[in-house]
Amino acid sequence: MPNATLSEIDAFLERNARSTLLRFSTAGSVDDGKSTLIGRLLHDSKNVYEDHLRALQAVPTEGADSNELPLALLTDGLKAEREQGITIDVAYRYFSTPKRHFILADTPGHEQYTRNMATGCSTANLTILLIDAEHGVITQTKRHAFIASLLGVPRLLITVNKMDLVDYSQSVFNRIKEDFLGFAGKLGIRELRFIPVSALRGENVVTSSGLMPWYKGETVMEYLENVYVAGDTNMVDFRFPVQYVIRPNPNYRGYAGQIAAGAIRVGEEVMVLPSLRKSRIKSIDTRRAGSERSQVEEAFAPMSVAITLEDEIDVGRGDMLVRTHNVPRIQSQFEAMLVWMSDVPMDPDKPYLIRHTSRESKIFIDAINYKVDVNTLHRTTGTPLQLNEIGRVGLTAAKPLMLDSYRKNRATGNFILIDTATFHTVGAGMILDSLPQELLPLGQGATELMEQGRVSTNIHPEEGAITKEARESQAGFRAVTLWFTGLSGSGKSTIAKGLERKIFTEGRPIYRLDGDNLRFGLNRDLGFSRKDRSENIRRAAETARLFNQAGISVICSFISPFKADRDRAREIIGADSFIEVHIDSPIEVCESRDPHGLYSKARAGEISEFTGISSPYEAPLNPEVSVRTDQHSVEESVNIIYVYLQKSTSL
Prior knowledge:
- The chain is of the alpha/beta class.
- It folds into four domains: 224 residues, P-loop containing nucleotide triphosphate hydrolases (Rossmann fold), CATH 3.40.50.300; 85 residues, Beta Barrel (Elongation Factor Tu (Ef-tu), domain 3); 101 residues, Translation factors (Elongation Factor Tu (Ef-tu), domain 3); 182 residues, P-loop containing nucleotide triphosphate hydrolases (Rossmann fold).
- The protein is built from 17 helices and 28 strands.
- A hairpin with a 3-residue loop joins strand 2 and strand 3.
- Helix 11 crosses helix 17 and helix 13 packs parallel to helix 14.
- It starts with 5 loop residues before the first helix and ends with a helix.
- About 6% of the residues have low confidence.
């Protein structure tokens, strides 16, 4: 900026400070022209240093385009790439224009480098997907679009390249656009844009082309400069993984790290995970380049800060600060889509190391549900993953992790797997937030299950000679299931026993199904993962339904913390026979009643997936009956439920 005035310099610096950052990646089949497109972007936007330009001019070229600069060499920096004529690594470049800063990742197009493409797409706001105008949408195009979608890239810019080889034909462009849209409807990409270009000639890359007057849209650079990406960052769910503790003196204890999502202000209440201890933000310290540490009133993702709390509580590396009423899932078992990145095949019998945010733990591969053929999107048999393969897997960590789904928050929804022997990264995963199909309520998943062979089509329910109605008529009562739900220590078992005794003494058929008793027998093979808890409730509901069909009422006493599981139990038993009873009590009261010391063990980390501490409890919104055991005695609680039962079930 020669001879610039002070005010002009200030204006320039202010514009630069306000410039936003766009991360984007490129993808496309071999020879589609990715490196040339990027070279053209850099060259025509004046982002190539003069010495680099002179070096390009000195490179001998051959053929019809011998007068063109070999722009692809701006990104094809590896010797092996030049020798093979393909990109085999992720080439990162930083550049800027007056409107925006950019970080681009030129990722490989060849099938054997899927792992590299996954690396490049993992943090991208958008992916530029190139399609050769002569070849159209091919298998590799679909493969790259699928991987970008899997990795949560919110938008795709489809550049139909080499338009000069098809005489800049509008009909060719439109046909390719229609073909891709027909496929992309399966992927759920949030935003799609199409631009016809000739990277070699510079048409519609940085400047508009006069050779395609039928195209009225923006150039590639105009789109990159103006696309809105501020909404990509999750600013709702505050997540602060602690990377390390700062103790410069006895009077300062700060927790340093990068805010992964959301925002926080001084004075706000936060919770420390996994201990669930609460405190308030005392100060937020940050440091700008070349400046001393300064305090701010508010911080937001992706700022790197040091946070102090008002209370002296134990916080260390791997812990996470969140808002009290907005917490991630705290669990050790989960499912994920996994990209295998190692030449050594997956070994399901060996432990690996998981690195999730700032937390590390040993982890085991429980199941390989299926693999995805990235060329056809078909699911294949779940065998151990090989290099560059992608599959859906079940995992169990040695200690609980603080998890969000990848779709909700890429920062807390991703992880890597490390080989414990070599310390090489072997896999990259995206955490899923949906239940397996076998846990869906019948009616939603039954058809799919039958198609997959998990439910035999040769089994049919057998009707008995004596109907439920006949049994109820003989007993004089309708057979129902009273489903007790509530926190551990709320009083479910005590009230269930009292109600069972009261009903039995009146001659009414009744039986109590207790959660702990079922786990000693019928459900002894189940653990406490989300999947096993759901299966525990399903089996209990099926058992209760059989009792009801025999004309016997049932009291089911289960924590059953998840609304979806209780809704499923209602569906299995039948809405007319299902009575939801919320045994309600504040967690502090439940904890004070803790006869077996379970809450204290859970807070110490000795019990994972403990409801109310390291796993959530979804309280019923509209139960048929609700009793507050911190306000009513056992006898009063029994009578409240008994009165409702008498009114609603007498024949």
